[in-house]
Amino acid sequence: MPTYKLLLLPGDGIGPEIMAEVKRVIAWMNAHRMGTFEIEEELVGGACYDQHGVAITDETMRMAEAADAIIFGAVGGPKWDKVPYDARPEAGLLRLRKDLRLFANIRPAICYPALADSSSLKREVVDGLDIVILRELTGGVYFGEPKTITDLGNGQKRAVDTQVYDTYEIERIARVAFELARKRRNKVTSMEKRNVMKTGVLWNEVVSALHERAFKDVELEHQLADAGGMQLVRRPKQFDVIVTDNLFGDMLSDIAATLTGSLGMLPSASLGEVDPKSKKRKALYEPVHGSAPDIAGKGTANPIAMIASFAMALRYSFDLGAAADLIDQAIAAALAKGLRTPDIASEGTKTVGTRAMGEAIIAEMEKLVPA
Ligand code: IPM
Ligand code: MG
């Protein structure tokens, strides 16, 4: 069995607490010979800033380049509100995405039946929801230049962000969308604002052309991103794979996540291109939720999104689909037993903390593992 090298970056806030549960899952996998994982751990975000004055060090970037996968917690918090823009905690995450060229961000939104009542929407609208937001992650307004604030000298300042997309960037994310859809319900919805943005016009054109050329068997539909956001809360089950740009994807994935009952439930994968020689791809796995500084250190954070992110690593980086299924089933089983962290608690369920939820999931894995 090959040995896989994981770089763990717990980050700030609840990051370290939920990462501790993933470490226990990894130890369990090693002990049960379901994979051989070596782990390294480093600082990122505010925690790294406090120690090194930057949100991620060059040395950690080198380790990230060399790792088979990166498991990332969360960054940020009010403590670092005043640090210089380039050293703010989020800059560590953005550098990882950009420098490792992790252009494809897969954000599934799945509504576990046990949680349908925690959603802000009616049960029938979300029960059984299973969609994917595929977000372009290394382009658009997040990274476009110029990105400046200029003093106009008359008491006014001018801020500029630049939304920019080249054909190849749109085409490669659209390709991932179509390939993903083929393994699911075979439908892609592309979202942009072609009615006001040139990048939207090009986005629409490139997605349509690729569809015509190589993916005619997949159903393709276009929605304007604002209308798409509305549809996402009105009738979310109409979607299968939604493909969209960096900024729209940021917003739409938070909306999609909250449909499922809790932001604390959803994992994500950020993938690079497959290297034609090694057949490997760079990848980072992280929960969709943030660092939740308000509950950090209390032992009450929901570790499920973090653990499910590790399961995604098993699936997408190591081709260990059966082990990933085992973890996903164990999560569903722990929920079905009525265990809930406070963020997903509801009447008639038992509220537990981070550690107890992690333990319960491992106990379920133990039951599910083939003898
Ligand atoms: C996300 C987050 C990040 C983003 C922040 C932390 C920079 O909101 O991953 O969705 O805006 O991409
Ligand atoms: Mg976001």
- Strand share of the residues? 15-25%
Number of helices: 12
Physical arrangement of strands within the biggest beta sheet: 2-1-3-12-11-4-5-10-8-9
Structural class: alpha/beta
Q: Can you write the helix and strand succession as a string?
A: EHEHHEHEHEEEHEHEHEHEEHHEEH
Mean pLDDT: 96
Taking Cα atoms only, what radius of gyration do you get, to the nearest Å?
20 Å
Give the fraction of residues assigned to helices: 40-55%
Q: Which molecules are bound besides the chains?
A: 3-isopropylmalic acid, magnesium ion
Major sheet summary line: 10 strands, mixed
Shape: globular
- Uncertain ranges: none
Q: Between the first and last Cα atoms, what is the distance in angstroms?
A: 19 Å
